[in-house]
Design a protein that fits this description.
Elements: H1 2-33, E1 44-48, H2 58-73, E2 78-84, E3 95-100, E4 117-123, H3 127-131, E5 135-138, E6 150-154, H4 155-161, E7 171-174, E8 181-187, E9 202-206, E10 216-221, H5 229-239, E11 247-250, H6 251-258, H7 260-294, H8 296-304, H9 309-341, H10 354-379, H11 384-390
Parallel strand pairs: 4-9, 6-8
Antiparallel strand pairs: 1-10, 1-11, 2-10, 3-4, 3-7, 5-8, 6-9, 7-8
Helix pairs in contact: 1-7, 1-9, 1-10, 2-5, 7-9, 7-10, 8-11, 9-10
Length: 391
């Protein structure tokens, strides 16, 4: 019996560790799903285009993207279209240092005194409208800027380059051939890799001088729009039949793909935690039920000598819950240690989150209580007279 109790305690300990880890990962995913993305994924499409080698000249590429933008904008239900080198959550590109107001490349973060590294994006005039990126100050890129060197920057970058100042009208220089460009607007921050990393510092430059960097379009459609992915492909290939079929994804799909690894980690731990919880409940039930069978005569004599039903129930429950209590204590200690090992996987929640630990302890305690209570009721059906006759 003592060995069986130790096994139950070990099961409860392991279950506690797995359930706490599962709870932490579920909480992390919830926080990631509710983080401020900086863009609106609803009704937005990414259209990736691979142009044939004959579009090696910048003028030819400019002409194609200009005509394609007009054609796509004419489709029924299309609200806005913009050429773009990258969309959020598809990775970093154009990583460069930055210089301000004619200074050399190498501006420093005022807080950390480290070199400020930015991402450069090359976009069309309706890029921010197509992705629902909010304008915080100034204006966005327009057709009237074709002969000017202008950029739009993200909010966090503005705060680092000109803390407490108005960045509109200032100038900056980066790599990727973006030289002494005037800042005309500040937009909201977006994530370029995953939602659980800080938003990237971004400089948005007009694409028409850098069309060799453009990889496709961002298209925003109205809810219930008639335009489909097939219509977009057909429209682009009507401009040039040699263009391979474009790859089209919704921004919602891009968001889901960025969460695949985190969802997989959570699913694996949840499955193992559920299996461990089931085995622990069965183990507790089995130990208590077998213990009652072994102590049938003893319990019968207790009842015959006047023991009340509640006294017998408490006796049986104590037998079942004692190893559970030990298991919970060691399990919580193990969960705290395991939480530190996986803290790099957590987001928005600490490895010692009190609410998660409390909720898991409560769930295990309730399940253990039920697992002990069900077989303990069998002790109340023992006939003391039959037991005494056998003795």
């Amino acid at each position: 019996m003592r060995l069986r109790e130790w096994l139950v305690g070990a099961e409860v300990s392991l279950t506690t560790v797995l359930l706490v880890l599962a709870g932490l990962l579920v909480s992390s995913l919830w926080h990631v799903l509710h983080v401020e993305r900086g863009f609106n994924a609803d009704q937005s499409l990414e259209v990736r285009v691979s142009l044939p080698p004959r579009y090696s000249e910048v003028a030819d590429r400019d002409r194609f993207f200009e005509h394609a933008t007009e054609k796509l904008r004419s489709l029924p239900g299309v609200r806005s279209v913009a050429a773009a080198s990258k969309v959020p959550l598809t990775g970093e590109a154009g990583v460069n240092p930055v210089g301000v107001d004619g200074g050399s490349l190498g501006a420093l973060d005022p807080a950390t005194r480290e070199l400020i590294m930015i991402n450069v994006r090359f976009v069309g005039p309706e890029y921010f409208q197509s992705l629902g990126i909010p304008l915080l100050r100034g204006r966005t890129i327009g057709e009237s800027d074709r002969q000017r060197s202008v950029v739009v920057i993200s909010g966090r970058l503005a705060a680092k380059l000109w803390p407490g100042q108005n960045p509109i009208g200032r100038s900056l220089t980066t790599g990727s051939r973006v030289h002494r460009s005037e800042v005309i607007g500040v937009v909201g921050d977006v994530h370029t890799t995953t939602l659980d990393r800080d938003p990237t510092l971004i400089v948005y430059a007009p694409y028409w001088k850098f069309s060799y960097q453009v990889s496709g379009f961002v298209v925003r459609i109205s809810p219930g729009a008639a335009a489909t992915a097939a219509d977009i492909r057909r429209t682009l290939q009507s401009l040039d039949p040699e263009i391979p079929a474009p790859k089209i994804r919704t921004m919602g799909e891009i968001v889901d793909e960025s969460l695949v690894r985190r969802r997989f980690q959570m699913d694996v731990v949840v499955v193992f935690a559920g299996a461990a919880l089931l085995l622990a409940a069965l183990g507790i039930y089995g130990v208590v039920a077998y213990g009652i069978a072994l102590r049938k005569r003893e319990l019968g004599i207790r009842i015959a000598l006047g023991a009340r039903a509640d006294q017998v129930t408490r006796l049986v429950m104590w037998q079942g819950l004692r190893p559970v209590g030990y298991g919970l204590v060691f399990g919580i200690a193990g969960a705290l240690a395991a939480g530190r090992l996986v803290r790099t996987l957590l987001f928005g929640v600490s490895a010692t989150d009190v609410r998660t630990l409390g909720a898991i302890t409560l769930v295990l305690a309730l399940i253990s209580l039920v697992a002990c209570l069900l077989p303990s009721r069998a002790a109340l059906r023992i006939e003391p007279a039959g037991v005494l006759r056998q003795d």
